[in-house]
Amino acid sequence: MLAGAKASPDDMVRAADDLKGPLNALSGDGVEVHATGASVLWSDFNKANHDAMMKSEIMSWPVTLAILVLAFGSLVAAGLPLLLTLAGLAASAGSLVLIGHLFPVSVWAMNFAMMFALALGIDYALFLVVRFRAARARGRTDAVAETMDTAGKAVLLSGATVLVSLSAVMLVPSPAFRSMAGGIMLAVLFVLAATLTLLPAVLGRLGHRVDALALPRLNAGPHRSARFAAWGERLWRHPLRYGAGALVVLVALAAPVLGLRTAMPSITVVPEDSSARAGYAAVQRAFGPGAPGTLQILLPAQTGTEAGTEAGTGTGALDVARAAARVAATPGIAGVLPAQPAADGSGWSMLQAVPAVDPSSPDLARTVDTLRADLPQEALVGGAAVENLDLQHLLTAKTPLVIGVVMALGFLLLLVALRAPLISALGTAAGLLSTGAAFGVARLVFQDGHGAGLLGFAPQGFLDGWAPVFFFAMIFAIAMDYTVFLLASAKEHYERTGDPREAMVGALAHSGRVIFAAAGVMVAVFFTFALSGPLPPKEMGIVLGVAVLLDATLVRLVLLPVMLRLAGTAAWHTPAWLDRVLPRISFSHD
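Above: the chain's sequence. Below: its structure in token form.
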């Protein structure tokens, strides 16, 4: 690279990709050469996780097809969601590649986008195909029109809810987070477009042939499921028994979240045989545990006001030598290298301070805080380890804002679609239960280590710092996905009959099997990531898989119907003032 040229973090990681192979090849004759450092660590981290996620995605396809065949009883009907989802995924993947030539895009953006859009795309296509088959079974000649007028509106609302939930992640001022959220949103847009345009055209063309290659023993039966109708009747008769049971389970699983700790990933998240980890261990053996996290402290030639001076002594100029002495005397610092002046003549000098602890130790944060408090205001304390600490602080500070924005936008979208403030608020609040329970399970597994041996990982004692913000948005988006499917069906029945009982029971009878099958697909997709080698995909797979499992079974098929039962007609009441300002959206088809 030319002297004076500025390299972005992505450029450095790509340089590490190119250099670590040739450097490692120099090993031999009793000499071991390992490329290490922050850029090499990210290079190994990205490669390991990319390979694991691709392996998991390949594993999920046959499982997904098997679930769809069981749900539809027809190979053609089961294959449609996969084919249409693939079309949307191909368009989004190509777009991300093109965008990557113009703007920096995280390597995780493509992986997250493919995984999330695959699960959602199958959900959307499943909902439309089931409704189309039901309309055909009733002899409707306008089956496509009915499908789009009912299920199509629900899918559009669900997609909008997912997009607004993920858009809240943009509030975190981190390019990596924003590119991941943007990549997922782009993939969802393409999958949504394919579902609402290409799929109806294919269904209209197929007509009755959508049931071709049917498997008699796996016949999916009528659109109104007798089993889920019976389940709805049971919930109507005994709402408190089942509702209280579901609530107790969710609260018990969510309780551990109160002790959840987060931090940025440690070196253990990369494979043991990776170049970065081998070099990291060699540096620690030779120079001490804190050497891989050496701090970089920038000081001007004259610093101005001295922090920490005794009262009454006034102010004074603190030169670099005195600053170096102060850094060396700071608890948690093992040593300080001689100051190096800036080559550009700007007057800045850089001190390199070696901490006494591993870069992932909580004690490092206290050392950095002490340095920033004791050194003059003009001093800058940085380095790769400090960058992780600052990112963690930023994520912690932004988490309440992201959660609040996601919930507010989700409620507003439900309110606009359902025109019923009570059930919109209850549906939004119910999403918090499955989210809290999923993070409670995550604390037990990844922080406390329960089941770590079964899943094949060593617990770090915390959950990765990016998980609360990013996973909350993803989980809440999925939860609202099922909420929209159930409540849109309930509103359709209520508009047609005016009977709250038929609204609740009919919603379960018509959408319960779809929600159950869609959740089965999502759980299969997400849990395959728990089989991956590196830790971050395991966290993603377990947290999202548990969230979907709990949300689909305990929240959407038990707790939310019970809320509809207890609220009665009040669930669908629209205040007069609200009726005048909200658009009129109907989910029924005349």
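Strands lie at 262-263, 295-299, 333-336, 340-341, 349-355, 380-382, 463-464.
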